[in-house]
Amino acid sequence: MTYSPLRFLPTILKKSRPIHLVMFVTKVCNARCPFCFYLEDANFSLEEGDMSMEEITQVSKSLGTMLWIAFSGGEVFLRKDLPQIAQTFYKNNKPSIMFFPTNGIQADRILATTEEILKTCPKTAVTVKISIDAIGDLHSQMRGVKNTFENCVKTYEALNPLLDKYPNFDLAVNTVFAQANQDHVAEVIEYVRKWRVTTHTLSLARGDLKNPEWKNVNMELYRKHVDRLAKEMRSGDHPIYRFWGGRIKAAQDIIQREMIYKTAVEGRWQTPCYAGRINVTVTHDGKLYPCEELSEDFRIADMRKEGSFDIQKWLHSDRANQIKQRIDNGCFCTHECYAMTNLLFNPKLSAKILSGAMKLPKAKGPRPAAKPTA
Ligand code: SF4
Fold this sequence. Notes:
40% of the residues lie in helices and 13% in strands. The protein has helices spanning 53-62, 82-93, 107-120, 137-143, 148-159, 162-165, 185-193, 219-235, 246-266, 303-306, 311-315, 318-328, 336-344, 347-359, and strands at residues 20-24, 68-72, 97-102, 125-131, 169-177, 199-204, 279-282, 287-289, 301-302. Helix 7 links the parallel strand 5 (169-177) and strand 6 (199-204). The protein starts with 19 loop residues before the first strand and ends in a 15-residue tail after the last helix. Iron/sulfur cluster (SF4) is lined by residues 273, 275, 290-291, 293, 327, 331-333, 335, 338.
């Protein structure tokens, strides 16, 4: 039994505090993806500057119970004390979900760390999401390191048995939809269908990239893929989403992908954004933002420099209020993680998701995840 997401139903009406944290734990990475926000950083391979365990503990203690903590980087599994970081949030924030994205390069390390987290955080759903952008060499080229694809397969094979051992474990895959791989995404979808994963997400390349050409994608092709996935979900002919609440997640993904397509094509706001209210982002060096839009203009606080890691205090500051007002005036983007909470906690759209979920058939499959408890 894992901590129930239903604890956060009142947030649909009252958005008084953060329930979703994106926590960058390191900027260190063993890949060189051209679509990474941190690629410009000269100290790409040094841990120097990453928040200490003590600073992270202060962040955790300043927050209440959390729905979702998404760790980010860099490669999160390169941070040696990742299990201790997860345990700190587990103890202080009782998160329903902890999410660990990975480039899948170091299977042994990812396996050992994941198992330690699963053992010590049994009441949280622990999701490891492997990045697969293409099959074979193209994926390794996109990630800038030889044999990355083969290593991702090893990581999947190493983690797969944990699904039978830990009811709170989820395996997932993400594919970046970028100019370099957009013609190969169908192949990736077919490949991943054979894996025991609970979700396969598509993320449009976004942000301030060194080579903005990566974001220059064919949106009609994106539409074709998301329409196909939606059709499969509606017919029940979909091998994933086999977990408690899977139909709600599937309905949300259908609506979310349609909304992301519209946002990108029309270049405008589709729904209010709750960044800075229920969602917050903390960078590896302790800067607080409403979201991953990491420009100076959006920075709420440099918590390390300003001597306090009390997130709730910063979110009620004048600066935070000004930023939230700017967001309310029609800020838009295609960031999938934020789109998810913006949909689920919007009263009108959450009702639409629920009615959409009731019309979906149950996905077939061998392993439903543990049922959450209150
Ligand atoms: S719309 Fe996007 S960029 Fe704007 S605040 Fe929300 S998440 Fe950030």
